[in-house]
């Protein structure tokens, strides 16, 4: 299959490109290196060194025996998007080219606006190009479990049978985003569902849980194949930050009471799920939602798992403590959470790795790059507050 | 009250400014004259002549004894938005500054993207400025009944008690937009609900039905006070187009089978509803949704009402026929439709004028400007198709 990855230089994109190449797919992709700029802007860096794109591409071709067709540019520019898709002629597009950070979207009005135009316009461009030139193409779009928020009812996979006053209809399950980043994912969801309904396009919309880990299986062989790993308070997801904190001897910091429940999955299993969705595409006109996560934990349980995994590295004497941080976000800290996850298992998904194993591998990688985390230690502490102010959060007393 | 109108030069904005001035409010507003440009772009013009802004403002001050504080610029430019809101210090903001046409948003990828950035970023800017400088300010935002689509269940006012597998939650009623214009209104809805929830802002989100008519009550006295009236296939709403067709002797053209049901209300009653919402603001932190319409008709009934109203003008021998047009949109033509409308009546809303009366007044105005409709007669025929092609629609055989 010819698969085009939007955001191929990013955390998920670079990993997926290799995963797909290994399975014999032809891979192309575009990137404007925005993720590299954003992380620099907030004063941090990837813990794992990120090779220059030229070196990445050379290593890719050497390892997989075929080039990755790379296009440098911004997919929210329609002419650029048209030029590269017409050149590549994809069977499937994986859209990983969005700004992925909730805190970054909450910095101020300009960051909120940028998140909207970057995320929504790139998707709109692809939908129009699919309609006009590639109507059979499958759009695999990355959403987030965060689109649903934390409702007091079970979370179905995208749709539910709405019963009201004696009548019923099969409807989109209501969303409740908690940041402008999450909101843009909800907006994409509505736009893509509509494009499939009006234009007969096919799409899989992935409501992904929190992903953690790094592609140690690739980077062992050639460091240029390593994907980035952000640990900072803006672009680092919860477990990634906790592991980085453990490695540099900082406290592990759940927000508030630490009882927020979320779905999690390791990077390796995220790749497995994407691949299953790509190799089992929906029908023409079908808009398919998959909830993609492996296990549900509350953030405190998660912190404890990181402490346990870190303790396994006797040589390094990693003995992190857990210290809750005042919550910079506005979110429920005690809530019901019971999302469905049936469709990926129906497609054949079986988790390949446990959280304990994945955390062990991750910490082993981070120990190697400890110096790079130490160099940006200040960035570990979340400082974007949902009320519009900025400044390092304090510990809960 | 000091009320700021975004889009004060537009169809609703210019009418509302005067309505509020008459009730003793201090009115300010901004506009970048985008509506004037869009209508020119698609080759049409307002049937009612639109005075230059300088003349409009002079007439406003002469009539109401106080100036309208006008700011020329684009509210999706944050610095402009900040400057004007800091200068005006509003108690309420009425956001009528969005691109309001479904067909315009469906022309191509660039028009879809423009609709998103124009509509969403202006709202984001206002929400951030309210949070930072006017936390008590009331945002009255114009949405559309079209956000809901045509579900097979009753349509509540924004929220419903979601029951699922033995549990329940008070949730946003699911939306199902039918164009990118409608989608941007859904996106705004999610953004504003979230801003109220996270930041304690107050907002009324109006799900407005199809508005028709012109502000004949103002324009009788001084033509410079007249609001615009678009009759073209892109910016003209259904009844407005039907009346223009009747006046120039063209067939009245429901789409497809003509059984699409919608809620309608005359401009005068739309003004009454806005005023009630402004003078009865929601509490701090409250996000309030009002469904705003007067009567529900299917499009064929509507066409028949226009024929009947036109027949009342014996002197002009207006005898329009109804000829259904192939539907350029993709929409259900036979469907259930039963939206609630309880909250505005609870605030005191009593329709001031019947559809028959409003249509009579409207046709009287259009007869006066018949020459301006004839001059752009080609624009009467819808030519933006939902499948991305362009060209005048054919009649149903």
Features:
homodimer; 397 residues; alpha/beta; Rossmann fold; seven-stranded parallel beta sheet; three-stranded mixed beta sheet; 14 helices
Mind explaining what this structure looks like?
The structure is a homodimer of 397-residue chains. Helix content of chain A is 40%, strand content 16%. The first copy, chain A, is an alpha/beta fold and 397 residues long. In chain A, the strands form three sheets. Chain A has a seven-stranded parallel β-sheet, with helices on both faces. In chain A, helix 9 packs parallel to helix 11 (299-311), helix 9 (238-248) crosses helix 13 and helix 11 (299-311) crosses helix 13 (355-368). Chains A and B meet through helix 6, strand 6, strand 7 and helix 7 of A and helix 6, strand 6, strand 7 and helix 7 of B.
Based on the coordinates given, report the CATH architecture of chain A: 3-Layer(aba) Sandwich
Helix-strand topology string of chain A: EHEHHEHEHHEEEHEEHHEHEEHHHH
Largest interface: A-B, 53 and 53 residues
Overall pLDDT level of chain A: 96
In short:
2 copies of one chain form a homodimer. Chain A has helices at 11-22, 34-41, 53-64, 78-88, 102-105, 109-133, 180-199, 216-219, 238-248, 267-279, 299-311, 343-347, 355-368, 370-374, and strands spanning 2-6, 26-31, 69-72, 92-95, 138-144, 159-164, 167-172, 202-208, 210-212, 261-266, 287-292, 295-298. With 397 residues, chain A is of the alpha/beta class.
């Amino acid at each position: 299959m010819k698969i085009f990855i939007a955001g191929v230089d990013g955390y998920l994109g670079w990993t997926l490109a290799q995963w797909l190449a290994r399975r014999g797919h032809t891979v192309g992709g575009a990137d404007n290196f925005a993720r590299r700029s954003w992380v620099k802007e907030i004063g941090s860096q990837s813990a794992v060194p990120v090779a220059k794109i030229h070196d990445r591409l050379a290593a890719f071709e050497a390892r997989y025996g075929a080039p990755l067709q790379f296009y440098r540019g911004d997919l929210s520019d329609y002419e650029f998007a048209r030029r590269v898709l017409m050149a590549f002629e994809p069977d499937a597009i994986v859209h990983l080219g969005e700004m992925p950070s909730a805190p970054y979207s909450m910095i101020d009005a300009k960051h909120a606006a940028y998140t909207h135009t970057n995320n929504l316009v790139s998707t709109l461009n692809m939908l129009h190009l699919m309609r006009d030139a590639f109507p059979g193409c499958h759009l695999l779009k990355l959403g987030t479990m965060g689109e649903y928020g934390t409702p007091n009812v079970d979370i179905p996979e995208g749709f539910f049978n709405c019963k009201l006053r004696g009548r019923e209809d099969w409807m989109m399950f209501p969303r409740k985003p908690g940041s402008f980043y999450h909101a843009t994912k909800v907006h994409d969801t509505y736009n893509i569902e509509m494009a499939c309904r009006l234009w007969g396009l096919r799409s899989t919309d992935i409501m992904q849980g929190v992903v953690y880990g790094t592609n140690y299986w690739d980077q062992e062989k050639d460091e240029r194949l390593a994907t980035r790993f952000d640990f900072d308070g803006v672009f680092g997801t919860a477990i990634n930050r906790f592991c980085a904190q453990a490695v540099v001897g900082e406290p592990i910091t759940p927000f508030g009471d630490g009882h927020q429940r979320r779905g999690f999955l390791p990077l390796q299993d995220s790749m497995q799920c994407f691949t299953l969705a790509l190799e089992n595409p929906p029908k023409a006109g079908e808009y398919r939602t998959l909830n993609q996560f492996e296990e549900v934990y509350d953030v405190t349980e998660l912190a404890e798992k990181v402490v346990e995994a870190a303790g396994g590295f006797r040589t390094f004497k990693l003995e992190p403590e857990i210290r809750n941080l005042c919550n910079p976000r506005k979110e429920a800290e005690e809530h019901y959470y019971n999302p469905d996850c049936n469709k990926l298992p129906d497609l054949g998904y079986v988790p390949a790795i446990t959280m304990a194993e994945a955390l062990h591998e991750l910490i082993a990688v981070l120990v190697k790059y400890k110096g790079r985390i130490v160099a940006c230690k200040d960035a570990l502490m979340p400082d974007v507050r949902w009320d519009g102010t900025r400044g390092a959060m304090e510990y809960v007393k």
